[in-house]
Amino acid sequence: MSESDRPSNEAGSLHDESVCARGGWFEEFTTRPSNPPLYQTTAFDLHGVEQLDAVTSAAEHGYIYTRDGNPNHSAFAADVAALEHAEAGAVCASGMGAVSAIFLSHLKTGDHVVAGRILYGRTSQQLGELQRRFGVEVTFCDANSPDALSSAVRQTTKLCLIESISNPLMEVVDLPAVVTAMGEVPVVVDNTFATPCLFRPIDHGAAIIFHSASKYLNGHGDVMLGVVAGNHHAVTRVRRITSLFGLNANPFECWLASRGLRTLPLRVRQASQNALAVATFLASHAAISRVYYPGLSSHASYEIAQRLLPDGAGGMVSFELKAGESGVRPLFRKLVETIPFSPTLADVRTTVSWPAGTSHKFMDPDERRAWGISDGLIRLSVGIDSVDDVITELDAALNQLP
């Protein structure tokens, strides 16, 4: 807004109601702030219909309505795209909003999707809804079986969906092999657990990536946000869907996520170091029957992780209790004051969760167990708190289990 556009009451020509309703502007707004401002606005004032036409046609850069776009949206999406070596990015209201926007912008009735057999539970649930309600066929495969992937491809296959590090068994997918097996089919990667600090799927042939930005990208447990990155064409399709279906993000959430992103490399590095130490400790504990962490040589994906994740295997660890499900509640009660039960992940603090009762609760129990997600599986999100404290607290709680 130019100086002449700002409401003025130097001569006392406006009533109090107008001064209040039109206020909030000050000439010092022209000085660039040291930190990005928050554009907490529903819409943007335009000089006239000519500017509306120019912005709508992309002849002029600008914004009209926050559901369609906002500077805080653009700033966060651009930073994530740069980190992921992508051409462009788009933000959504949540990680599920991001995957919804990808599906809605790339699939129609009769299309086919190949998906990794181990995915975040709600992603699997959404694929099931697409299949039951909208006639999109889905084939679940072992993502590290090139033969299974290639044999699943049909003429109607439009997408392949995998996770770079799977939730909750921490399987690392050999993405170059997946891309080769899928041929011309675009590969979509949920990169939430790895983050671009550890792995950049687009560098290995992926077409589109997405994150639950509520997790590591923001990293402080106070945001609900998703982000998609890829080439300009794919992201333009996603942006259209986010606006049309109301999947858009909130400017304040984007502003917070941009602030969290500034410390992402430091947080991911420390969480990875801590997680390796915790996983090593758990692997030798008498109350634990198995540990899932790709940084351990005992993990099925260890060799792939060594090749694709040279800077660390992330902050997520899962482990099986020898006591099975009967040990879950006692363990969480012992840890409640130190490592709390929280049905999310990637906060700066260490937390625990129970996949069978949270992230994968909505799967058929027999199917869930067949995929290796037992009722005694615990998922540990290792933070940047003192690893010595975390190990001490885990040891004390585990030692009190039957």
Structure description:
Helix 3 runs parallel beside helix 10 (251-261) and helix 6 (146-152) runs parallel beside helix 7. The chain has helices at 16-21, 49-56, 71-83, 95-106, 121-134, 146-152, 175-182, 195-198, 232-244, 251-261, 264-283, 302-308, 328-335, 365-370, 387-398, and strands spanning 88-92, 112-116, 137-141, 157-163, 187-190, 208-212, 226-230, 288-292, 316-321, 351-353, 377-381. The termini are far apart. The model has no long low-confidence stretch (mean pLDDT 93). The chain folds into 3 domains: 3-53, no CATH class; 65-261, Aspartate Aminotransferase, domain 2 (3-Layer(aba) Sandwich), CATH 3.40.640; 264-398, Alpha-Beta Complex (Aspartate Aminotransferase, domain 1). It contains 15 helices and 11 strands. Strands 1-7-6-5-4-2-3 form a 7-stranded mixed beta sheet, with helices on both faces. The protein has a 4-stranded antiparallel beta sheet with strand order 8-9-11-10, with helices on one face. With 402 residues, the chain is an alpha/beta fold. The radius of gyration is 24 Å and the shape is globular. The protein is 37% helix and 14% strand.
Can you tell me the CATH architecture of the largest domain? 3-Layer(aba) Sandwich
Number of strands: 11
Stretches where pLDDT falls below 50 for ≥5 residues? none
How do the SSEs run, as a string of H and E? Answer: HHHEHEHEHEHEHEEHHHEHEHEHEH
Give the proportion of residues in helices.
Answer: 25-40%
What's the pLDDT, averaged over the residues? Answer: 93
- Just give the CATH class of the largest domain: Alpha Beta
- Structural classification: alpha/beta
Number of distinct helices: 15
Rg from Cα = 24 Å
Strand order of the largest sheet: 1-7-6-5-4-2-3
Distance between the termini: 68 Å
Shape: globular
* Main sheet specs: 7 strands, mixed
